[in-house]
Write a structure and sequence with these properties.
Layout lengths: L4 E2 L13 E3 L5 E3 L14 E2 L2 H12 L6 H7 L18 E5 L2 E10 L2 E8 L4 E7 L6 H13 L11 H21 L2 H5 L2 E8 L5 E3 L1 H14 E15 L2 E14 L5 E14 L5 E10 L8
């Protein structure tokens, strides 16, 4: 893996690509300057598609780590109540197309990346894009499905018992993606015309605005969110899920922590494919108690 190394913005690196960004009008521009050394080794690396393909092949062949180590790394974690999550040690785990997919996404100014592996089929797809704001996860998923001839997932059943499970999965996915700062997967939970209303009243309407909100939030804060659903109702192709939330937020720049809680409301729409997407996402915050006299 001769092309893989920690990124040094100021160094001359042969064959390093330029980084791009689309502005609000859709014009392609140079991406902003970023010294990504602050997040090494968890990020901030340069690599090539060939190198990442070698990395994936080595993992699948058990030549990089032992099979027992790989299995441990890919074992989903459990919640405090014993429920199995779709996240392991730095890897997302999802049952799809009749097999198990392992993967992760990444992104920063001028960069969007994804790696998706199908261990049972000894296959992997690497997508590296020198532009931010694109969806490498969806492309990797599509390429893998086509290359392996995997069947498309069947639409979920339209009875409410199945839909309740679907909404529970969306809640769990939202918490997991938020905690692990997976931008593209969390955005895929929302409809293109979704609206996100923050506890402070700020409103983000449409996918570009919601993307900007999560991008800024992931850069500034580390969060540990808990959602407790209290009520779920359905009416035709619409549903809502409401409940309580609590979160410990850490400001990355200072290390300061705060514990916040309140109520949430998710309004969801079932698409023609049978999948649910968040249409309205509303958060309120409980006021602090009055001072004692």
């Amino acid at each position: 893996m001769d092309a893989s190394q920690p990124d040094d913005f100021f160094a001359i690196v042969p064959r390093r690509t330029r980084w791009y960004h689309k502005d609000a009008q859709g014009a392609v521009r140079n991406a902003g300057v970023l010294d990504s050394s602050y997040k090494v080794p968890g990020g901030g690396w340069l690599s090539s598609a060939d190198d990442m393909a070698r990395f994936a092949a080595a993992i699948l062949a058990d030549s990089l780590v032992k099979r027992s180590t790989r299995d441990l790394m890919w074992t989903p974690e459990k919640t405090a109540s014993g429920e199995l999550e779709e996240y392991a040690m730095g890897w997302g785990i999802v049952k799809k197309y009749g097999t198990t997919l392992i993967g992760h996404t990444g992104g920063q100014q001028g960069t969007s990346t994804a790696i998706t592996l199908a261990p049972d089929r000894r296959a992997a797809v690497i997508v590296l894009a020198n532009m931010d704001g694109v969806d490498p996860y969806a492309l990797a998923d599509q390429v893998l499905r086509i290359a392996l001839g995997l069947p498309e997932s069947l639409p979920p059943s339209r009875d409410n018992s199945s839909a309740v499970s679907d909404l529970a999965n969306i809640r769990a996915d939202f918490v997991r993606y938020l905690k692990s700062k997976q931008l593209e997967p969390i955005l895929q939970l929302y409809a293109d015309d979704a609206v996100f209303l923050r506890p402070d009243g700020l409103r983000f309407a449409g996918m570009p605005a919601i993307r900007a909100h999560f991008t800024d939030t992931f850069a500034a804060l580390d969060g540990d969110l808990t959602l407790t659903s209290l009520n779920t109702e359905f009416s035709g192709h619409l549903a809502y899920d409401s409940g309580e939330w609590s979160e410990i937020l850490t400001t990355r720049a200072t290390g300061a922590q705060g514990h916040f809680h309140g109520d949430y409301l998710m309004v969801l729409r079932r698409e023609a494919s049978g999948s649910w997407h968040i249409l309205e996402h509303v958060w309120t915050m409980a006021a602090p108690p009055p001072p004692r006299e």
